[in-house]
Amino acid sequence: MFRPLPAFIGLRYAGAQRRGEDSAGLVSFISGLSMVGLILGVALMIVVMSVMNGFDRELRERILGIMPHATIYNADPDIDWPALRDQLAADPEVLAAAEVWQVNALARSGPEVTPLLVQGINPETIVEVSNIGGFLDPEAFAELTDAAEPGVILGQGIADKLGVQKGEHISLIVPDSGADGGRRAARLAGFRVADIFHSGTALDQSLALLDWTQAQSLAGGTGGAGIQLRFGKMLEANWIMRRLLGELPAQNFYGSDWSSTHGNLYQAIQMSRNLVGLLVLLIIAIAAFNVVSTLVMVVIDKHSDIAILRTMGASTREILLTFVSQGALVGLVGALVGGALGVVGSLVVTDLVKGLESLFGIQFLKSDVYPVDYLPSQLQWPDVALVVGAGFLLSLLATLYPALQASRVQPAAALRNEQ
């Protein structure tokens, strides 16, 4: 005979019910609902955690792949920026450094005007700090330095707002304080669109690139210059930047790191992941504890069977394990099937959402509102193991109360009620 006996009987109870009895059919229906709820809860939590992992990855690898981990500035026009770049790049915790000249400007094409952040770059060093080159044509940087017709590289969102394409012309306007009575003056320069990058991030809506000398001229030669830095330890960027500032001999250096520009986004992603994970975990818990109602009805339906087993010598422990086995089977199947569906969902959710956007002609995520304009997903197997294990464990805990009730059934009273 199959051993152990409690597991054998519990699996029989879970897999088959007596036909022709309304209570048996109801028990089977409730048991099926419990399993379906657990499957959906586990699958949903795996997909949600994968999406949160995807947003975290996009922040680290895509957004902060384009933007530096930190930037050190100084308003002194006499700073030797190439020498300072080499000095900072020699630090063992700095992976790369590049000079930059930043200025806030307005871009205009015909009647359309939009604000943007202009970065004047050195094409030879920017590729070491930023992966922006991966979104551009190989010749785009060379066109920035065209003496006859200097170029500008725009984000896709800026180009869409202005209604321009590659090869067309725009004007960049930088407001400035005039020296005569505080009146406002403005510097204006025309540029040809050398290329348009689409990173799928919020940077598409705000970033434009110029040659270093062009940005310096646009800014009037004052302020905005700095050194962009990339570190090996992104999460320690603020501490490393402060140490570097303390080691610089000149005064008036100041800096900012990614936590001041994108730190709120990073914290929001982590908080959303925790809150959504907690909510979905509660859904799994509700589905798991539906096993309680299933087993309570089974115990009521099987009173006479329990009594017979007791009269045949089954111990309290064996009766307890019989119903624990039944609930454990429901939890195991629900957790494993839900885990498999969750893995498949995590792998296809990005393409599925993209397909729905194409089918209905809408865009669920836009980079001017969200950090990226698509739904990212990154499956991590430790998360799968955690969710599947939690679902099974909650189901197992849910079996304890009805199993204890079954083990306390008195044979004489149960058989008397059957008469």
TrEMBL record:
User: What InterPro entries would the database entry show?
Assistant: ABC3_permease_C (IPR003838), Lipoprotein-release_system (IPR051447), LolCE_TM (IPR011925), MacB_PCD (IPR025857)
Family assignment from sequence similarity: Belongs to the ABC-4 integral membrane protein family. LolC/E subfamily.
Q: Which GO terms describe its biological process?
A: lipoprotein localization to outer membrane; lipoprotein transport
- The question of whether Kinase is a record keyword is answered with no
Would I find Cell membrane among this entry's keywords? Answer: yes
Query: Can you say where in the cell this protein is located?
Result: Cell membrane
Instruction: List, for all copies, the residue spans of the domain called ABC3 transporter permease C-terminal.
Output: 278-411
Please give one Pfam family short name. FtsX
**Which keywords does this chain's UniProt record carry?**
Cell membrane, Lipoprotein, Membrane, Transmembrane, Transmembrane helix, Transport
- So which residues are the signal peptide here? none
Q: What is this protein called?
A: Lipoprotein-releasing system permease protein
Instruction: Give the main location.
Output: membrane
Q: Which residues cross the membrane?
A: 26-52, 275-300, 320-349, 384-404
Domain spans labelled MacB-like periplasmic core: 31-219
**Protein topology in the membrane:** Multi-pass membrane protein
Q: Which GO terms describe its cellular component?
A: plasma membrane protein complex
